[in-house]
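Journal club side-thread
Mid-discussion, someone asked how the predicted structure for our own chain would compare to the paper's figures. Pasting it here so we can look after the session.
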Amino acid sequence: MLRTTRPFELKFAASAKPGQFSGYGAVFDNIDDGGDRIVKGAFADSLADWKARGKMPKMLWQHGLGASAEDMMPVGYWTALEEDDHGLKVEGQLDPIDTERGRTLLAGLKNGSIDAMSITYVAVDYAYGKTAAEPFRTIGRVDLYEVGPVLWGMNQFASIDEAKAAYKIKTIREFETFLRDAGGFSIADAKAIASGGFKAKPLRDEGGADALDVLRERAAGLFKTT
């Protein structure tokens, strides 16, 4: 699974129920931190599937990543998700808001200290850019799993599915994609590692650790419990 993050265009209606908000979880034709561009229509099939099931994607804080069971609990629910000409329009309700976490999230969204939204998805249909000036990938269809507020950019941890899917890599382009999405590497670093092997370019600020070991540690962190 992949994650992409963008500044959250948030609105609180004066007459709305406390904790009710709307905005955009994704914007079309915007190149994200990983070099991907999502085009109009990418969410249509997935949203139709959710509607057919009578359900909505989850709303999690920081993708639900954390050491405690509370970290994995939803922080609210989505009341409406739809595509328009601008992007993925979302309407939701923080719930509960009468807890410490609820009050903190509501205050952060209102004062702008929490100003980014991130989606978790699987890219179903995409094309790689052919030149350095083009996006790394242009994504035409996704399966959407989760939408929620976050503090910073793309999450650097591999998901369980990504870690298990590594054996499917057959081309250097697929290897670059795995390094970028699962390992949190930049496009340039992913290209350098893929062309020279895992040991060709150690991570900065990781004490010169072997990149493969770092990826394993990041993936293993998802399984930690208290």
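Post-session note: The helical segments are 44-53, 100-111, 160-164, 172-183, 187-196, 211-220.
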